Amino acid sequence: MLDPKFVAEAMSVIAANTNVPVSVKCRIGVDDHDSYNELCDFIYEVSSQSPTRHFIIHSRKALLNGISPADNRKIPPLKYEYYYALLRDFPDLQFTINGGITSIEEVNAACTEGAHGVMVGRAAYGNPWQILGLVDSAVYGAPLRSITRRQVLEQYQVYGDSVLRIYGPRPTVREVVKPLLGLFHAEPRNVVWKRAVDAAFRHCTTIKSLFEETLGEIPDEVLDAPITEVPSGITDTFIKAKSLLPPPYTVNEEELLYA
């Protein structure tokens, strides 16, 4: 982000070598370079000097002073007001909001306030049943499917065993099963099941054998329960953010030219 000219050049090369749209995912700043104007300078230069028209904005700045990646996801404060100001100041670009959004209700609240799109990463990975399982119905209006975790796992087992080791030694059983480790988030015996899975990784050579060995740890009422409700989330965050917008951005092309 401190070298937008380089980013623009890189994105131009990438765009020239693909037939799909390109996008940039970035924070709202780096260390002390965290003003709204500096973010806008970056967006302006990359979008005006490359074909990039879509930016995914993680609404925290990045701290490069030695803190861990995990701390970088929670210590810098979220500033959703920067995201919504970008919508105002760059109406010809597309922006996806990211960072700190952990429920379907929050996704819909962000969209209600004008977000072009919402990226949910770790929350979906950590609790896929309540996030991914509800997206089609709660966000896109599709009928709620009466599908159970057992049915999902039956289909995943067929898929998983079909892709094991298709690139020589990889993917391994562990790599194929890893995306499922949040499937029983907050359910009874979730921790016991995870321990059993971890032990099974050492000797199971198929997804089918791993499921046969471990799924007995999960109660049938959990395995066979369909998705029934949307978990609650904070819904006024984005309304508050829109009341805190920084002043409108004005392009200083002469200053950018000699930056």
TrEMBL record:
SUPFAM superfamilies, per the entry: FMN-linked oxidoreductases
A Pfam entry, by short name: Dus
Residues of the DUS-like FMN-binding domain: 1-206
Matching CDD domains: DUS_like_FMN
InterPro entries, sorted: Aldolase_TIM (IPR013785), DUS-like_FMN-bd (IPR035587), DusA (IPR004653)
PANTHER family, A to Z: DUS-LIKE FMN-BINDING DOMAIN-CONTAINING PROTEIN, FMN-LINKED OXIDOREDUCTASES SUPERFAMILY PROTEIN
Record-given protein name: DUS-like FMN-binding domain-containing protein
